[in-house]
Amino acid sequence: MKPATARRLPDAAVVRRPARVRLLWLLVAALVLAALMVASVAFGSRNVGWSDIWAAIGGADESLEQAAVGKRIPRTVLAVLIGAALGLAGAVMQGVTRNPLADPGILGVNMGASLAVVTAVAFFGLSSPTGYIWVAMAGAGLSAVFVYGVGTLGRGGATPLKLALSGAATSAAFASLVTAVVLPRNDIAGSFRLWQIGGVGGASYERIGHVLPFLATGFVICLLSAKALNSLALGEELAAGLGERVAVARGVAALGAVVLCGSATAVAGPIGFVGLVVPHACRLLVGVDHRWLLPFAALLGAALLTAADVVGRVVARPAEIDVGIVTALIGAPFFVWIVRSQKVRAL
């Protein structure tokens, strides 16, 4: 018979993946992402041929097709960056909290960033793109601290279900506050209504340039936290016995996740469920070692958001469905399944 502890752990936690299998999955994920990026440039309300794609890459915009490609390229790049940021942030949040329900949207982090940006624009006249990002990161950080503080109240501390419930309640409250702030302001209501859904439409190289330094910083912090997250997965006492400064490790990793969430939300709006779905899929493929899990989560997150953007453009053309709606349609049933499974106890 298997030990009781082994029976309670998910299969991904007890089966060790050989390095060659992990490398193979990373290669597959990279190839899938590359194919989706090509599809994102080629498909939309107007399909384009290879000649137009190559001409547009070279800077030509002499036809409608070439102009369409010129707009899709920065949109594709932004979808890749935002998807990678949300997938990586979700994996880090789940590692920091040891909570399989952790996700920037479910824990209220995205909505906290949204509320901070809306409040700053409506009451303080914020207009700087870089200012949006700083304010969004501050809102995301404060929301994460608040949700975790509420989740620790009562017996048992911050259990996965308590964190999910406190995050859901906080998200609902913040969403109501966002609506209350935006509705009386006709001058900003239209643009913020679209932004609140979450999407990568209207992307430009200028917007990417503003957010790229923040995303790069978040990527570096999170990836460098992989070893510490492996120690934290063993439990606080054992991690401390191995020489890990638990509070510092958690704080640094959480900071990286907050930077990624805040930056992504400032540019693309509060896109949900990417950070929930992606880490679980990654654990099934490459296991629980964060040195492999984190880069794989970034690749798979980029692929998921790019695919969702392509689907949203194709199924409703000549109109389009915002990527935040597509990810919600994918992630909501997955969230219900996770809640109903035994994995909800802890990672």
UniProtKB/TrEMBL annotation:
InterPro entries: ABC_BtuC-like, ABC_transptr_permease_BtuC. It comes from the Bacteria. It is a multi-pass membrane protein. The keyword DNA damage does not apply. Keywords: Cell membrane, Membrane, Transmembrane, Transmembrane helix, Transport. Its main location: membrane. It is found in: Cell membrane. The chain crosses the membrane at residues 73-93, 105-126, 132-151, 163-183, 208-226, 247-272, 292-311, 323-340. Belongs to the binding-protein-dependent transport system permease family. FecCD subfamily. This is Iron complex transport system permease protein.
